[in-house]
Each structure stands twice: as C-alpha cells, then as structure tokens.
Amino acid sequence: MDHVAIVTGAGSGIGRAVAVxxxxxxxxxxxxxxRRASLEATAAMMEGEVIIHPGDVRSAExxxxxITAADSLGGVSILVNNAGIMPIxxxxxxxxxxxxxxLEVNVLGALQTIHSVLPGMRERGRGHIVNxxxxxxxxxxxxxxxxxxxxxxxxxxxxxxxxxxAADMKRGGPPIRVTTIAPGAVTTELVQSIRDGxxxxxxxxxxxxxxxxxxxxxxxxxVMYAIEAPPHVCICDLExxxxxxxx
Length: 247
Ligand SMILES: NC(=O)c1ccc[n+]([C@@H]2O[C@H](COP(=O)([O-])OP(=O)(O)OC[C@H]3O[C@@H](n4cnc5c(N)ncnc54)[C@H](OP(=O)(O)O)[C@@H]3O)[C@@H](O)[C@H]2O)c1
Description:
By secondary structure, this protein is of the alpha/beta class. Helix content is 45%, strand content 15%.
C-alpha cells in the first residue's frame, strides 16, 4: 500500500467523502470519530483496507491508539484533520461551554492530532497534513465569532507548521506538506451541532436558500487534488465556495 491516511470526523459529511475518495485511490484509511455506527456506514461505502476507530479528538489516548492501529497498514503518511463542530450563537447569548467546546475540538483537537502523527511521519520520511478550515475564519459572520476564531487559529497553525517543516527540510529533514482547505457552505450535518434552536433554524434556512451549495464530494475533490500533487508541490491554501456565495 502506497499511503495510509487517518481521517478525523469520517462518519459524515466532508470526512466521509474524503475517506471514500482516499480508499478508491488505493490508500489504507483509518476512519475516526465518536459515533461507531456512522463510521460503519462510511466503511460500507469504502473499498480496500479500512480500520474503524471510534474516538474523540480531544483524547490523546484515543488518537494514539488510532495511530498505532494504522501501523498495521504501514503507518500514517496522510492526516486529514477534519473533525469539527459549529455551535454558533451571538456572543451575548452564547455559553462559555459552547466556546470551550469549539476551541477544544476545532483547535486543541486538531493540534492533538498533529502531535500524534508528526513523529511517525518524520521517522518514515514523508507526510501530508490537510487541515479543513473554513471561509468563516477569514470572514467572520454574526454569531460565529468563536467558530471563526477557531478556524483562523487553524489557518495560523497550518502556516506556522508549514514554515517550520520547510526550515527542517533545509537541515535534512523529510518533506512533509501542510495544506489548508477553507470551504464555504457545504451541505452536511454540521448545522446540527448548533445548540440554539433559533440560530440552528436560521442557519439551516441560509443553506436551504442556496440553489447549489457545495457537496462533500466537491471538497473531497479539492483534498485529492492537493494530495495527488507531485511530492515537490505543496498546495498550501485553498478556498472553495459555492459560486453564488457572497462572503
Ligand atoms: N459544512 C460546512 O458548510 C463547512 C464549511 C466550512 C468548513 N467546514 C468544516 O468541515 C469539517 C467537517 O464538517 P462537516 O461540514 O462535514 O460536518 P459534519 O458532517 O457534522 O462532520 C463533522 C464530523 O466531526 C466529527 N466530530 C465532531 N466532534 C468530534 C470529536 N470531538 N472527536 C472526533 N470527531 C468529532 C463528527 O462525528 P461524531 O459526532 O461521530 O464524532 C462528524 O462526523 C469541520 O471542521 C467544519 O468546521 C464545514
């Protein structure tokens, strides 16, 4: 097997579409997320070597165990850091718990995942980390201040890590690429992570009002484009929006 990937949040939406595409390209894939039943549904759509590994990105133990499981396929060479939540609400009515959860999953969870895979990538001499950010990180919209902050943090983490790894290469370190992909509106279950009923209904209406929002497969195409680029080419940062999306 040429590559082995771990995809977080692979039980639905973008993560599921990416996992399916990676498997179709001959990559062994560890699919990771909290709900086993959703992961099993993803696995049923995949061909080739698939390991279902339920777990939470906030848990170093869960992630390290998933990385160890991937060793049986040859060790992780691709991380798709996709798990995320969006419990948005205006700051005056938001709870600290929403903010804490957003930062713990979208930022610390992504960092934990990077921390778990980097040593193995360096040891094996190659790697590609793909972080799924959001256009909200570049254009915060009302109600999404903390979600947007979590995504701009992910942008900065990706850019900083990319620079570090490039400097490391100059000292003889291995080529490890870092790609940030920032989608606009994609039809997925993400809206269900909004806890405030009115905000959830308003956000669902925003998606419904679009003629053609992005599909998870549209985003998976872009992820595959970055992954399949020649090893000396790093697709660093890409935005993908529905053509009709204003900002
Ligand atoms: N949909 C959009 O419009 C849009 C736009 C821009 C960016 N994004 C980003 O795209 C990524 C994927 O979201 P999506 O739109 O595909 O929504 P989704 O269908 O809700 O997928 C999110 C996935 O993350 C997993 N997840 C959530 N918390 C987790 C945790 N603590 N540990 C492990 N897995 C966890 C969920 O599975 P479990 O609940 O089973 O854990 C779920 O499968 C997110 O980072 C999101 O911010 C989405």
